[in-house]
Amino acid sequence: MNQVEIDELSVKRIQPQRHFIDGAWATGVTEATLDVISPIDGRRFTTILDGSSSDIDAAVRAARSAYESGSWSSRPPAERKKVLFKLSELIEKHALELAVLGVRENGTEISMAFKAEPGSAAATFRWYGEAIDKVYGEIAPTPQNILGLIHREPIGVIGAIVPWNFPLMIGSWKIAPAIAAGNSVVVKPPENASLSLLRLAELAAEAGLPKGVLNVVTGRGATCGRALALHMDVDVLAFTGSGQVGRQLLEYSAQSNLKRVYLELGGKSPNIVYADAPDLDVAAKVSAQGIFRNAGQVCVAGSRLLVERSIYDKFIDKIAGATEKMLLGNPLKLDTEIGAVSSEDQLTRNLRHVENARAEGARLVAGGRRALVESGGSYMEPTIFAEVAVTSSLAQKEVFGPILSVIPFDDEADAVKIANDSEYGLASAVWTANLSRAHRMVRAIRAGVVHVNTYGGADITVPLGGFRQSGFGRDKSLHAFDAYTNLKTAWISMS
Fold this sequence. Notes:
Elements: H1 3-10, E1 19-21, E2 24-26, E3 33-37, E4 44-49, H2 53-69, H3 77-93, H4 95-106, H5 110-131, E5 138-139, E6 146-154, E7 157-161, H6 167-180, E8 184-188, H7 195-207, E9 214-216, H8 221-230, E10 236-240, H9 243-255, E11 260-264, E12 270-273, H10 280-292, E13 304-308, H11 312-324, H12 344-359, E14 363-366, E15 370-371, E16 379-380, E17 383-386, H13 393-396, E18 403-409, H14 412-419, E19 429-431, H15 435-444, E20 451-452, H16 481-484, E21 485-493
Parallel strand pairs: 7-8, 7-10, 8-9, 10-11, 12-13, 12-19, 13-18, 17-18, 19-20
Antiparallel strand pairs: 1-2, 3-4, 5-6, 6-21, 14-17, 15-16
Helix pairs in contact: 1-4, 2-8, 3-5, 3-7, 4-5, 4-7, 5-6, 10-11
């Protein structure tokens, strides 16, 4: 990857996009389209189809037909593995193209996007391909005259609704285990970040995935997402996004066929720094990256920084200094560390959070304003607030932007109390040299992920998901197969 290659791809003309249904590009039932606006410069650079419930129905029919035909669901695991390996190779071959497509849509800095999107997607398909023939059934401990077998079987048609911040990575976390297990999938990508998932579907067909096994329908959540969630022939719905939409999807399940719904929702993750942290400079630098990379648009972002009172002012200076060194700019430049906010609407919401924090009495340490106005794009200064009240909206609500709350604590009990004073429970971190304290904190913090002396970086081998209103879905690891397989008991009399 070099800047010349990136620059060439960044100006490449993108044809108006269609749906990918039953192994081929498909026009919509209507001719309605949605503009794809780049947050880099505020300009339209292509369109996608504004799909309808009829388009979702066509995709579900294709997925069901593929599943029932056995062209994939009945194929031996070793053969499915070869296809997923081939898809992984194709993703790696087209990695820069996929990364630039995504950056042009959502503004993630290219240095992060290249690893997090195609890099992660290729690794995910390869990992689940390798796992296909490593997952066994079970033999139950029955009496000698009974043979009890527990089989894992694919469920059928999986619906996946994917967010805009890392669509290829998060989409792969859902698609790869689902098709590895033998299911067919219908994906509803985000309206403002659909291009990389459409390209993925095309590459999957090139890799040998049978038609109908992976389908992608673009459009609005209120139309296509709703239709997918209400569809009577979708067996499982996997979703990453907001709590408000997650609640609606549960209602749709109840209104339709009681499909299983797996939700990975928001977070307000506490990042706890003790005075005895091994290296406060490293903690400051990593903590700044943990909230400001991708302009804070990361579900596990460490948006609540809890600092032991004895080092509170000192550490604020350190993280402000680390933040000041991070380069905000065009996300298609290799040296950029903080890219664009995904859209004008998101930027407006972020700036409203700044106004509210000031009104609530928080002290603005850095940032707080729109940036790079002359670019025409959507950029915001990395923003730090100190003296943030634990009960304030800034400390309680998910911002999903480059805004950090810094809150002091007195002792371990106080840190745990503040960390758990949230409706969310997705991720967290603890910085301490005290091994016993680290283990106590891991047990005490109510979150699906607890980092110790780091932030982020967990790979495909471990699950990602939260507690409480962060949802109950689990992406990644072998545990992901639980969402996409049925357990079937065979009770065989040997008499």
